[in-house]
Amino acid sequence: MKRSIFASLALALCCAGAAHAQPQAAGQSDWPCRQVKVQSVAVAGVWTGPSIDGATSWRDDAALGDLVARISARRTPIETAQKLVGDFATAAGDKRKERLTALFAGVYDTLEAERHAVLAGLDRYGAKQKQLADRLREETQTLRAEQDKASQDKASQDAQKLKDASEALQWDLRVFDERRHALSYVCETPALIEQRLGALARVIEAAID
After folding, report:
1. Which of 71, 195, 165, 179 is nearest to 121 (CA)?
2. Could you tell me if 140 and 169 are in contact, meaning their C-beta atoms sit under 8 angstroms apart?
3. What is the pLDDT of residue 2?
4. Residues 1-5, mean pLDDT to the nearest whole number
5. Which of 59, 72, 92, 131 is the most buried (most CB within 10 A)?
């Protein structure tokens, strides 16, 4: 039983160490993902349309702001977003280029803000995971000390301390492992947001032409 706990702990901490072993810049040591952390998506990397510098009118336009929110939401299929953008372009008439550029500016600002929030959340997640890993190491030392005490002098064995140390270690190991497995999906989220931004950029560019 105890051997199984220690084996699981060793595997979990090994995986945690591998996740944090990627080369990182100063201030990024809490990043928990195997994927390289890219702080921001460059506009030029997804958009070849008109410059969006100064295109902030979408913030003061209720209809434009509503469309930005609708097509930026990942629950909205790209096909639906394409139709919404097409209808918007038709309604814009001779202001099509200006309005669609503002639309993309809104989409970019919205998805970049969402992506930054996800990155910050992942950093917090990683920091908590590191703290839990440190606690697991301390609890392991406590459990082994209690086991050594019991093996050296059975008469002085404190069964309750041994039981409490074992239960604390098993519980925190379970929490640590569940959080580690959850990362496999969460770490993909920044890339998914970037992919949606690129897809929407292509849809909007196509509507400008």
Report:
1. 179
2. yes
3. 47
4. 46
5. 72
